[in-house]
Design goal:
The structure is a single chain. The chain has 9 helices and 10 strands. Helix content is 38%, strand content 14%. A hairpin with a 3-residue loop joins β1 (18-22) and β2 (26-27). It is an alpha+beta fold and 279 residues long. It has helices at 3-13, 67-70, 73-81, 102-111, 166-177, 202-217, 223-238, 246-258, 263-277, and strands at 18-22, 26-27, 84-87, 94-99, 116-119, 124-129, 135-139, 142-145, 151-152, 162-163. 41% of the residues are buried. The strands form 2 sheets. Strands 4, 5, 6, 7, 8 and 10 form a 6-stranded mixed β-sheet that branches. A 4-stranded antiparallel β-sheet has the order 2-1-3-9. The model is unreliable at 43-50 and 179-196 (pLDDT under 50).
């Protein structure tokens, strides 16, 4: 049994839903049966758990406390290649305020009530009891990770976990109020009077979507910015002719979910990209 698997089983026994992370601190990709969401997987799931297969698929949604799943042969290959262990805080009734800079840590110490803190690579994780919606970039270097998100396990930290304060919930409300609401429709309407466009060539469009998926998957930092810019590029190339379908958009959103982006965050990024292009 390797160290990551041993850690995962110990955390699961304490009630933390866990999953393996590969190099780059990102989840393993979906198995072949679930690739490109062909399994009908649930990228908008409200509760953790695998899709319909035994693999650790669908990023945060694979997180589980079941030891028979965690140590199963289906997960064995991923544990052998794992670079770290992650957990789904919302699934354990927790919220993590992820502070990525020294300035963000200074802000938290002056603004947030004390709770358990864990040192991270660039800052600290502040862990509170209580779940809420996950929101990235609620402040400079400040992300909120809870439901439909994952956090890398960095140790037990110091201090006692305290109740989720109103000031943290307010950060999410404030962040949402500064972003244009997402459109109700997911497809991009075609513009009339332009005739048959080259994007309808299956190979051309497929290559563009695959490149966009890969760009998101390969992001090692500034994931939110990468997702927005990728959405912007896809819409700039394919958004004015009506070629994009729900299936294409779902593939892009699924790639972003696998990097830890919440459905709401994806919808906001998509809406902002459309607005920037005047679509």
């Amino acid at each position: 049994m390797n160290n990551h698997l041993r850690t995962a089983l110990a955390l699961a026994a304490d009630g933390l839903p866990v999953l393996p992370l590969r190099r780059g601190k990102v989840p393993f990709g979906n198995c072949p049966a679930c690739a490109r969401n062909r399994c009908g997987g649930r990228p908008n799931m409200k509760t953790p758990g695998p899709c319909t297969c035994p693999q650790p698929c669908h990023a945060w949604a694979a997180a589980t406390t079941a030891p028979n799943v965690i140590s199963s042969p289906a997960w064995a290959r991923e544990w052998r290649g794992a670079a770290a262990v992650a957990y789904h805080p919302g699934g354990a009734g927790l919220t993590v305020v992820d502070l990525d800079t020294e300035a963000a840590v200074t802000w938290a110490r002056a603004t947030l009530p004390p709770t358990r803190t864990v040192a991270s690579t660039r800052g600290e994780h502040w862990i509170y009891r209580g779940a809420m919606r996950s929101v990235n970039a609620v402040g400079d270097g400040v992300d909120i990770k809870s439901t439909m998100a994952y956090v890398r396990w960095l140790g037990h930290g110091t201090g006692t976990v305290t109740a989720l304060p109103a000031v943290v919930r307010a950060l999410a409300v404030k962040a949402a109020s500064t972003v244009r609401p997402a459109p109700q429709a997911s497809t991009v309407p075609a513009l009339t009077g332009r005739g048959e466009c080259r994007h309808r060539t299956p190979a051309y469009l497929e290559r563009g979507i695959c490149m966009a998926e890969q760009r998101i998957t390969d992001a090692r930092s500034a994931v939110h910015t990468t997702v927005y810019r990728t959405f912007l590029a896809v819409l700039a190339a394919h958004g004015r002719c009506g070629c994009l379908t729900d299936a294409h958009i779902t593939r892009l959103f699924t790639a972003a979910h696998a990097k830890g982006e919440s459905p709401r965050h994806c919808e906001d990024a998509w809406a902002n990209a459309r607005t920037a292009l005047g679509l």
